[in-house]
Amino acid sequence: MIGLVFAKIYLSVTVKYSLESYIRMKNTTKPAKKQAIVLPKLTPVKQALQNHLIFSCFKTDRASTPRDWYHTAAYTVRDHVVERWVRTAASYNDQDPKRVYYLSLEFLIGRMLTNAALNLGIKDELSDGLEALGRNMESAAEMENDAALGNGGLGRLAACFLDSMATMDIPATGYGIRYEYGMFKQAIEHGQQVENPDNWLRYGNVWEFQRPEAAYDVKFYGHVVPVTDEHGVKHHHWCNPQHVVAMAYDVPVPGYGTDTVNNLRLWSAKATKDFDLRQFNDGNYEQSVEERTDSETISKVLYPNDASASGRELRLKQQYFFVSASIQDILRRFITTRDVKAEKDWADLPNKIAIQLNDTHPAIGVAEMMHQLVDIHGLAWNFAWSLVVKIFAYTNHTLMPEALETWSVELFGTLLPRHLEIIYEINQQFITMVNHHFPGDTELIQRVSIIDETHGRRVRMAHLAVVGSHTVNGVAALHSELLKTTLFADFNKIYPNKFTNVTNGITPRRWLNQANPQLASLITRAIGDGFQKDLTQLAKLTPLANDKDFRKAFRAVKHDNKLRLARKIESLIDVKLNPNSLFDVQIKRIHEYKRQLLNVLHVITLYNRIRHGAKDITPRTVIFGGKAAPGYWMAKLIIRLINDVAAIVNDDPVVGDKLKVVFYPNYEVSAAEILFPGSDLSEQISTAGTEASGTGNMKMALNGALTIGTLDGANVEIKEEVGDDNIFIFGLTTPQVAETKASGYNPRDYYHQNAALKEVLDMIGSGFFSLEEPSRYQAIVDNLLNNDNYLLLADYADYIACQDEVAKVYKDQEEWSRRAILNVARMAKFSSDRTIGEYANNIWQVQSLK
Ligand code: 26Q
User: Fold this and answer.
1) Which candidate in 498, 588, 640, 818 is catalytic?
2) Taking a C-beta distance cutoff of 8 angstroms, is the pair 712, 738 a contact?
3) Which positions ≥6 away from 293 have C-beta within 8 Å?
4) What span, in angstroms and rounded, lies between the C-alpha atoms of 444 and 774?
5) pLDDT for residue 5
6) Which among 21, 133, 152, 679 is least buried, having the fewest CB atoms inside 10 angstroms?
7) Model pLDDT for residues 615-643, shown as the tens digit of each residue
8) Nearest atom within ligand 1 for CA of residue 691
9) Claim: this prediction has a pTM higher than 0.90
10) What ligand 1 atom has the least distance to the C-alpha of 714?
């Protein structure tokens, strides 16, 4: 009886509020009429803080915790953000400009409080308000969890781009996934990486707005039924699919020194129906709940591997899930703001939208756009295709073969049966075109086909992205050149004008202003604050490199930042650092191609010199930080080796404070904000030709570190900007790497010919750093001696010589500061504002909106 009553109440609730009914409501809603927006006045900051503590946090001052004060501050700043956000949205609606949609599976935005306050120009007011109430801005900010919705460079780039697009008043939306768990938290236990879940939403998220009314149906599985209508036109019905609802969460993206606040829209997966009542009444309550959690798994967790395609069904589901919802949202916005009836109305679509694919992760968007235009909106295939290629552009971030995404045709066809058909059709027309231009070249066709027939049958996502885009770009000059000559050489013959370069950049707001307020204010005193929005103004610092007083002030800032970093490190791992030592920093994902191991070889070389009684040692602190993909055994072993070496070196009384080795645990955006300003030397030592760009290299130079690096990725352009004398370059060049490999590289030759190298490898191999388990690092030594894919041994001698030069220059603090200042002064090119300007002008054809 009670059960029946409950079921009845439940039924009415479900019918009224289920997500399905939301979707129905939404699709029949007419666009709102234009009307002037009148907003209530904002409360002064101090008053707002007092109000939010009580009315938003339900806390009295007495009972408040540091987290309450974070929330209080965040709500206060948020009010200011929302005010501008509303206006921005209204102005986009009224003016209907061309918009950019940046599709990315990752947005590594980090913390927002300080960033939002700075960009809005209310940081001082906020800080004063908190002070007046007996609280402190820094400790409030420290309570915010990082939004770690990304792995590394690619995700952080997307976040820097959002900042630049908002700052430059470009009408842009980021689309991604609201992962319930972001990048794992790294703990170091007994020297080894341990992964813990990142439950970042535990205390709620002040910066997101749930949008239950912006929900879309996303389909999976099922099968396709072709139907021919009364006019003889063939249609494709996607029958019996599973349904998942994508619900939007909006996160504001405030620009710096502008009223523009753009939107980052993140999708969360919800089951379509709260529960299946029939199953409920049949006693299958558990099963109906299980199906619910199944669908909601899609947005549960970020895949933590940044350099290898996982091949897992759930990952493909994530990709399709967010891409389908985003494209439905994009087309809904286009349709509801105009009368779209005839083909000519649709022809305007590429004048109104540009979609950027952040790597191949959202490349399924090419097929999804065809699906929506042809199957849902009834456009003719060829016309729809002509639109698609005008809309999409694709950025490649890697040449590494293991990172290139392919999906088995079988899996693809099961999960997305209609999209597989669409891809076949796209491929058919593409191959026909290629055959027309290169008649009879069947090998070429095999190589460029979207379907790889040589490794089982697989869908090549990069090929789909290239064929479906008008422009394909690499992320640094060298990388883009290599794309044209290696990975996409065939495509470059077929589409000679499709490939271009857009060198990466970083936002100076977060990476100078926010991370290094002392340096920002020193620069402001010297040249004014115009550099925040126009980094070319940093060039005005050039003459100050020769000014003794400025150098002294610059060194004082660096010293303070090193002290701050040293305090942080001591609190984390209980190692005391000598702030006068050279802070030598390598922070990035742990990967063999990035060669953290080469750095370790240098550390052990220094250690041996000290042990053997060398006198003339420049004191150094070598700091490592970064996460290894949980399944990447070798990367995890490298972390363990670093920690084992650190334990021996740091404890050896012979060493004293001449050498310290630190592994900074859980490297993330908020850690980077302390590490970059505290660095003297920036390690960018990947094997030439492997690092697409790198962006940490730019962040460190902007914060006054000198680079030691190979001629790889953006290092090449950093060298061009700062000048050969202000960077330490070593190692084989990309063509030399290729030659060395081609002519039968034997790492053992280097081992036998270099006594210092031999000593280091023998120590690692014999268990010097792992006495309790002498064979622990045998695999590392074996790998170096027998394969050495990344040519560590070939580059070792030059690296050591270059490090010796670094040590020598560092002894001359005046000379070091002079070079460091020149690095800062010459970083203009690496502002993401410059990067976004190039995308806007050359790829998107969009304008700023005032
Ligand atoms: C792919 C398939 C399945 C699961 C995960 C992935 C995956 C996820 C993330 C593959 C790659 C990534 C991230 C790549 C990345 O961060 N690349 C870096 O991009 C930066 C921005 O352009 C460059 O500066 C770096 O050189 C590049 O390594």
Assistant:
1) 588
2) no
3) 271
4) 51
5) 36
6) 21
7) 999 999 999 999 999 999 999 999 999 99
8) 26
9) yes
10) 24
